[in-house]
Amino acid sequence: MITALIILAILAGVFGLILGYSAIRFKVEGDPIVDQIDALLPQTQCGQCTYPGCRPYATAIANGEAPINQCPPGGETTILQLADLLGVEPLELNPENGEEAITTVAVIDEENCIGCTLCIQACPVDAILGAAKQMHTIIADECTGCDLCLPPCPVDCIEMVPIKTETTNWKWSLPDSTHTAPKA
Amino acid sequence: MTNINDMTEFALILLSTILVNNFVLVKFLGLCPFMGVSRKLETAIGMGMATAFVLTLSSVCSYLVNEYLLIPFGLEYLRTIMFILVIAVVVQFTEMVVHKTSPVLYNVLGIFLPLITTNCAVLGVALLNVQEQHGFLQSAFYGFGASVGFTLVLVLFAAMRERLEVADVPVIFKGNAIALITAGIMSLAFMGFAGLIKL
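Structure tokens for the assembled complex are given below, as produced in the milestone run.
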């Protein structure tokens, strides 16, 4: 009886160790290609690509179900990066999904806000703060500028404001693709 | 080591397990994946390959556990629980290794691998190996043959079911009913192999 218990316990223990070791040894980090595509997308979760968010779109690209040119917020930069990653030809941005826009952030005109919470429900990234019958405000750092809060607002008190360039968010402008280097 | 006699014996084991004593149609083991994943040819092939791998490996491991742990300590009565443990570990380990080494194969086999744990043919082969007092290589061949037989029948059955999908079947027989009837007729056909070999 005791032998049986000991043998069973030892065998189970050994198997546990083998599995535990191989779980570390053979670890796989998700589906790497989906993660890589997802990392290139702008994470606005705006749904303009017709998918419910950036990750579903990344999965669709990885499965070959969607072309790489459906992301207006990412624009040409994202398309070029995706083409580079996946080894396919870069495409023009699909106009059906929208136009590439300058980065904006939503601002609520707090005088006119009636506290209806409709924009809170529309926001894909929970960047709007407020409660029923209370004035709402936008957490500018979280806002992705996706425009989704504009249509539901019954009093049109939300405005998209281009992000002011400051030393903290200034970037080199992208090289102009039409411009060629001067011949020496 | 291997002489002509051994070779014929292995060939006989293979022939016996694949055709004569087919695990699905003659011994009626592993019927749930047989009915469950035979709707499409691709899934049937995937399941067959996964099962072939696990069955061979687990019958060898079960043999080792039985020979070097259970018999020396007189614990033969723990056989079933030990074999279940071994099979579960082999399946889990296989899944991890396949996931790491071959993402393509994992995509094909992925969802089928955990299903094999509950495939009674796997446990059946391990227990039959003990019952028939097979040696190490015999166990390996027995397991491999059983899985080839399983795959063969699964693929044949899947091909038939794909055609049955579009066939004009009376309403009350549609779906699983006609599939079970087909399986019965297939089983009858495989009974025709009985007596081909006596093992």
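The interface with chain A takes residues 65, 69, 73-75, 78, 81-82, 85-86, 89, 92-93, 96-97, 99-101 of chain B (CB under 8 Å). The radius of gyration of chain B is 18 Å. Further analysis is deferred to the final report.
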